[in-house]
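Researcher: Predict the fold of DUF3298 domain-containing protein.
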Amino acid sequence: MERKFEELKKEYQEIPIPDELDFVVKKALKQKTKKPIKKILISGLTAAVLLVVGGINTSPQIANAMSKVPVVGSLIDVLTIREFTIDEDERIANIEVPAVENLEDKTLENSLNSKYLEEAKQRYDEFNEEWENRQANEAQTSIVNSSYEIKADNDQILSIERVFETTLSSGSSKIEKKYDTIDKQNQILITLPLLFKDDRYIDVITENIKEQMVKQMETNPDQYSYFYEYYLDDPNYNPIAEFDLNEKFHINNDGKLVISFDEYEVGPGAMGPVEFVIPTEVLSDILVSETYIH
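Model: C-alpha cells for DUF3298 domain-containing protein follow.
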C-alpha cells in the first residue's frame, strides 16, 4: 500500500499549479506512516500559504473513516492528499483535497482525484478573487473551509461528501455540498438514472420531497419554512425543478436514497443545508434492483 500511496502522491505533485498561487510543495510523508505528518508553514509578504501532501493520519475524520473500511478485494482508501491554506488577519482558508486510492479501475480513480484537485483550486481562486473585490468596497474578514466526510462505507458502496463553507465577518455564510457514490464491487460511479428503470423517478422523488416539506412545516413551523409554502395552492409549482438531482444525491449506510440541498436553495439561509431521505417503498416499483437502495 505504501508503494501505491507514493505513486499517487507523485502523480499529484506532477499536476501543474498556477504560479499566482505562490505556494511551495513540500514532502510531508515519512517512510513510516505511523509518525505524525509535520506541516511546514511558508510565509510571504501578503499571504501564508501551506500545501501539505498528507496521509491517512492527516485528520481525525480520515482516521475514523479508515478504521471502518472493510476489506473487499483491494482496500479502498480515502485520504487527504493536499491542503490549500492561508492564514492572515483578514483572510483565512483551509481547503482539504481528498483522494481515492486502490480502486481497480484507475481511470475512475484518476478522474475522481483530478476532479477533487481542480475543485479545490477553483475554490481557492474564487475565494481570493472575491476577497479582493470586497476589500475594494468594504474590508471584511473572509474565511473559507472545505472538508469531506464518508457518508457510507460498506461492502457495496462508498459515498463521499465534500463540504464548502464561506463565512464573512458581517455574519453571512454559505455552505455547499457535493457527493460521489461509488460501487466498490463493480468499480463504477453511481448516477441517479442508473438506479431507475426510466425517468419517472424525477416526478416520484419530487412529489415525495414536496410531501415531506409540507409535513415538516405543519408539525414544526418554527424550524421549517420552505419557499414552497408560498406556492401550495399552485399544483404546477415544482420547488426543485431548477436543480439537477444527480448532483444532489447520495446513498447512506442504511441503503436509503438521500437528496440534499444547499443553503438558500429551497428555504431561508437560517435553515442551513437540508436533506430528504426518500422512503424505499416510494421507489420500489421503479428501481432497477435493490442492490444499492433497499
